[in-house]
Amino acid sequence: MTAAPPLPQPRRIRFSARDGLPLCAAEWGEAGGRTPLFCLPGICRTALDYQALAARHMGERRVVALDYLGHGESARPEDAARYDPEDTVRDVLDAMAALHVHRAVVVGTSFGGLMAMAIAAARPAALAAVALNDIGPRIETEGREFVRDFVARDPAFATLDDAAEHLRRTLPPLGIRDAAGWRRLVELTYARGEDRRWHPRWDTRIADAVLSVEPPEFWPYFEALAHVPLLLVWGQESRILSAGTVQRMRRIRPDMVLISLPGIGHPPLLNDPESAAQLDAFLRAMP
């Protein structure tokens, strides 16, 4: 079997949050006449999750993905209270200004989708379209508790194979079919530290700072997306996004494009041929 070609490495852009803490974004492609893609990862994910998406679109438009504070190559604050979601919304809005992403097609996975809804409420003109990946205005308690437990742990794996086995046992079905796929997911989830062990690419204190209380429902924020084209990717086995929430979202937005993935949990990786083709068609239809 022929190995898949390597994914394009991003340029790194470093800038400061309003309180001076260093933030980092990844960028592919060049600014041109088309609206950029602005990609927002999940609560324990980083900008590198969007490498494959960037590879498919960087020839057509600029693609930018953000490392939130405490993730990837962005700083980790001394005070974990700085991870308050309202502060993260301000960071995202400030990042759009610093990165010259004044209007964007936003792709938001899980927590990143909530950030997209917050942008719609705070700065609606900044959005040209939104693709939500397995997130809605209601977060199911079972899923939130699973994510909190996952985010809080640093297993400090001795080997990449140990980390891969842990993810295979722990995560919901994601459609990963071979060892190379699991290895890729490990490298996106953990980084090798100075102790030669594999540690999370996020600050585990985020679990208590963000996920320790039941979140409110975000229906007014979802309704703030009324002015933009909208797509939802839904893993039917998701413990975060229920069928009932998807149905209510469709009643509010009957024009919403729905990519429904049987047998897939939270969050879909956006790289399997079926969902990637539908997502890419939606994105390429945007200006």
Automatic annotation (TrEMBL):
One Gene Ontology term from the biological process aspect of the record: acylglycerol catabolic process
GO cellular component entries: membrane
Pfam families membership: Abhydrolase_1
AB hydrolase-1 domain residues: 36-271
Keywords attached to this entry: Hydrolase
Taxonomic superkingdom: Bacteria
A GO term, aspect molecular function: monoacylglycerol lipase activity
PANTHER family, per database record: HYDROLASE, PUTATIVE (AFU_ORTHOLOGUE AFUA_2G14860)-RELATED (PTHR43798:SF33), MONOACYLGLYCEROL LIPASE (PTHR43798)
Name under which the protein is recorded: Alpha/beta hydrolase
